[in-house]
Structure formats: C-alpha cells, structure tokens
Amino acid sequence: MQGFQDSSGPPNVAQLQATMQAIELACASIQMHINPSAAEATILSLRQSPHPYQTCQFILENSLVANARFQAAAAIRDAAIREWSFLTADVKKSLIRFCLCYIMQHASSPERYVQAKVSAVAAQLMKRGWLDFEASERESFFYQINQSIHGAHGSDVQFCGINFLESLVSEFSPSTSSAMGLPREFHEQCRRSLELNYLKTFYCWAKDAAASVTSMIIDSQTEVPEVKVCTAALRLMFQILNWDFHNTVAAKASINFYFVGVKDHGDSTKRSEYNLVQPGPAWCDVLVSSGHISWLLNLYAALRQKFSCQAFWLDCPIALSARKLIVQFCSLAGTIFHSDNGQMHENHLLQLLLGIMQWIDPPDAVSRAIENGKCESEMLDGCRALLSIATVTTPFVFDQLLKSIRPFGTLQLLSSLMGEVVKVLMTHNSDEETWSWQARDILLDSWTALLIPLERSGQSSLLPHEGISAAANLFALIVESELKVASASASDDNVEAEYFQASVSAMDERLSAYALIARAAINVTVPFLIGLFTERLSKLNKVHH
User: Fold this and answer.
1) pLDDT digit string (tens) for 161-187?
2) Scanning 65, 153, 233, 402, which has the fewest C-beta atoms within 10 Å of its C-beta?
C-alpha cells in the first residue's frame, strides 16, 4: 500500500482530511474486528511513510478519535527515529516542541493514554537528540517544563509536566529505555549526562511541586485536583531515587560495614525486593539535611489522621506513593552520609523508624485490625521498611535505634512483629497466600539481612544479648507453628505433585532462614531442640509399646 507521504509546499487540507479519515476508519475497524488485516496495513503505512509529520500533527490536532491520535503520535516517533540523521536541527526541535505544547494544551483531556503516548514520544525524541543539542537548547525545553510544574498554569498542566519528567527519566534509565538502533555507548552517555546535570534538579522540582499543594490537600474537605499532582510528584521522586546511580561501586567500597554497610548477600534466600539508594554526597543537601524527610513523614501522618475513618484510604494512590517513598528512604546509604562514625545515618534511620512505628506497633493491635478488615498494605510496607533498615545496618546499630527512645530495642520489635504474624499463620493454617504469608517472608528476609553477614564474618557474638533472647523466643514459636502445620498436613493425601514440590522448595528456603535465627541464639535453641526431640521420641516409643 502506498504511504501517506507529506506533500511539499503549503498543506493540502483535503489530502490531510482524507488521510485522517482513513486512519480513523482503520482504528474503528480494528476495534470492531472488521477486516483487521487491511486496517493494520493502513496504520502501518502511515508509520512507515517518509516524513509524515505534517499529516500526523494534523490528526493529533483535529481528529475526534482518540486511537487515531494515538497512532499519529506513534508514527511521529517511528519516522523521527528512523529519519533523525537526515532531519534539520530546526525540524528536530520543532517536533519536540510540538509534542510538549500538545500535552500542555490538552492537559485536561480525559484520554490519558493519548497524553501518555505523546509525552513518551517527546521524551524519546529529546533523548535521541540529547547529544546533538547544545546545553542552551536543552534548557529552553526544560524552562517550559519547569514553568508548568510550578503550577502557574493550573493543576492539570502541572500534572502533565511532572508526567513528562517521569517519561524522560524512564527513557534515560537503561532498564526502561526504548530501542533506537544506536550503540550502547550512546545510551550510557545520555544516562551519565542526565544524572550529573539534571536528575537532582528534577527531584527538586518534584519536591517543590508536592510541597506547594500539601496544605491545600490537608485542609480541603473534599478531594481536590492537587491530590493527583502530589501523587505524581511523589511517584517521580521515587522513580528518581530508584535510579542506578553511577557511583554505586565506589560507595560500596568506601563504607564501613559495621556502621552503615551495604551488604552483598550473594546466595541468600531473599524473597523480597529492595533497592539500595546510593546517590552520593552531592545529594545530601536535598535528601538528608533539608528537612525533606520530615515533610514527607508529616504529610503522610496528617493524611493518615485526616482519613482515619476511611478504611480504603490506605490503598489510594497518594497513600501508596507516599509510603513507597518513605520505604525507599530507608534504603539510603553510602557516601551521601558524612564520615561521622555513622551518626548522621543512624539519626536518619531513627527519624524514619519513628515515622513508621504506627504502621506496625503494637504488633498484636495491628494484626487484630487487619484480621477485622483493615487494609494490610500499610503494615506490609512497615515490614519492608524494617527490611530496608536491616539491609543497611548491623544488628547492633539496628537494635540501638529504638533503644535510644524506648526500653526495648528494634530486634525485640522485629521478633514481636514476626511472632504475631506466626500466630496468625498458626490460627488460620491456610494454603492460600495471605497477608501473613507476605509479612512472614519479608520479616524473615530482615533477619537474614542482619544475620548472614555476622555468620560469614564469624562474629555472631556481635548480636546484642536482648537480640539473642528475642531470636530464641521467636525460634520456639516458629517451631511450634511449623509442627502444627506438619501435623495438620500429615494425613492429607490430596496434595498435587506440582504443588507439593513448590511447597517443599518454599519450605527449604524458610528452613534456611529459620536456621539462621536458631544459630543466632545457639546456646538456647540447641538445648530446646534436644528437649523437643527427646519429648517426641518418648511419645513415639509409648505409641509403639
């Protein structure tokens, strides 16, 4: 089929209209499953046409069919990437400006997927020309974005500006970048440039945007548009902190393990995902010493209090985004903290721990509320925060965090929390994966993060005395729970082979973690196990006699 090639000279409106109608008809045909092959060929023809920019822009600006606009945006992207080397500098910049202007002008459009597509196209074209453009040319694009994010043009435009930066950061990140048929070195140069010159600035823009709408959200009696702005800003901040910062290796090498070590567990049996955040010393002013974390914790606490009567709120986007960012801050490590014997890092972790205590403490009350219908996501995020803290500290530092303000340490809290989860598992004894399964796995990973480095270094004695006691008590409860489960399943012959194999594999992983906890309190747990075996053997002997 012949392509929809732009004609040279003034636009031929009749031809543009005809092309738009053909694309609209093709989109409708695909949706209604009417001759889809021919319809797909029509759309493909547009995407493969040389220099189709005028046509695609006409469709984006005039079509009432959202799918047609989506396809036009996709065609701009395909053609521009394909023809980039032959386009003039002015055409390249005009395509990016068109996309940016389009998303701002249509900021209130209900068809979010079209907006997202045009935003993604702008991000991809900006990356494609990143090494071609002068710094001043990039700045002109970002000036427009910054103006939108400041909120001068309303919350819809502010939201679109933040979303564009999210698309841009995603495009520059190696794990989420689009294929452009270019060597790896190109992508690496772009990544390095964005990280060194813009990433921190983007974070500050997002932080300021969220802070600018906080009061309005908290004080309003109804949901306001600013909620989506704040949610998008929190999401962008999380995305930026999730960046694979180039100085990670150097940071690992420079850390004193016994204060704020970054642990490489190698073959440990981790079931939970977490990412260390190591942006380096240049980020200290923005992330650590600016009061930013206090603002974030206060925002979540205020919203939590405001919506305490609405059970669903814990799972709404702004709550989820705020908690994800708080948990991510628990993974902050490396040279961002001053060389002050770990004191700055400990203060940072204590501040976060105090903020999340309401999510997980007291464990029995939290567990009871969940069993009575409360959403479990907040409690699980609290467990993830403990895992993150355990990953960047030693058992001694981990335990001392709470001891500075409470009569018991953080290890006791970890033990009590997991003990409560184990009790719930014993009560229900269900094959279905429930919140208590998830919590158990996350908390087991927390113990693993704390204990494996001690075992490998041969310094298990560094576990505090109260930690040994907490580990011993927890292990006894775990054994009781697993024996109860084993007893209940011993006579069950209806277990499918595949499920049984998966169950055995999962049990092997858990046993490895249980063994770590047992060895941490070996002077207590070995006599306990000997006594238990003796008791069970005695019962067996009585049965046989």
Assistant:
1) 999 999 999 999 989 999 999 999 999
2) 153
